[in-house]
TrEMBL record:
Descriptive protein name: Uncharacterized protein
Transmembrane feature ranges: 122-147, 153-176
Chain residue ranges for the region called Disordered: 88-116
Keywords from the UniProt entry: Membrane, Transmembrane, Transmembrane helix
Protein species of origin: Elysia marginata
């Protein structure tokens, strides 16, 4: 088997390996992460570096070596880790299958924001929008309640002030009238006394 000379060539070779299900594929080449999907393939390229230190292209033919190994592709060194279990190599129990499936789903969902968009990003956006809407609605309700309470308090204060002013005016008028009446009576009495004495 010839050594792969590019990432696409490498992934085409990997796509021939029989795995349990099709899931997310993350490939990192020269620190550039790309998200793609290949039929019947589940792997995660976790790191890469330039160099030709490991000439182990034969590992692509061995599904067990693909579990956690490094393969040289020309001048690009790629470290790969297969997320799924290889169905052709061993028959795992249903519990291990469920664990690997949940692990694959968590890997796909947790890394979906690195590539061309995914369900994880959409869920985060929806949650943020819902939280913002709820906060805005609660803030509007609080403002309306405060305004209503303040308006009621202002109205009550104005009514009380008006009533107090009216009472004070009435009292002042009544007192003034009373004082005027008493003064007029006193003046009349003095005139009568003075007139009578003359």
């Amino acid at each position: 088997m010839q050594r792969p000379s590019s990432v696409s060539r490498c992934l085409r070779l990997l796509s021939r390996i029989e795995l349990e299900q099709k899931h997310c594929v993350y490939q990192t080449v020269n620190n550039s992460r790309v998200k793609s999907s290949i039929e019947g393939l589940t792997l995660q390229v976790i790191s890469s570096s330039t160099g030709n230190n490991h000439n182990s292209s034969e590992a692509w033919e061995d599904t067990a070596a693909l579990r956690d190994g490094k393969v040289s592709m020309g001048e690009t060194m790629v470290s790969v880790a297969v997320v799924s279990t290889v169905s052709s190599s061993s028959s795992s129990s249903s519990s291990s299958n469920s664990r690997s499936s949940s692990s694959r789903r968590s890997n796909c969902s947790s890394s979906s924001s690195d590539g061309g968009g995914g369900g994880g990003t959409l869920i985060i956006v929806v949650v943020v929008v819902v939280v913002v809407v709820v906060v805005v609605v609660v803030a509007v309700i609080v403002v309306v309640v405060v305004v209503v309470v303040v308006v009621h308090v202002v109205v009550v204060v104005v009514v009380v002030v008006v009533v107090v002013v009216v009472v004070v005016v009435v009292v002042v008028v009544v007192v003034a009238e009373a004082e005027a009446a008493v003064a007029s009576k006193a003046v009349a009495a003095v005139v009568v006394v003075v007139g009578g004495g003359g």
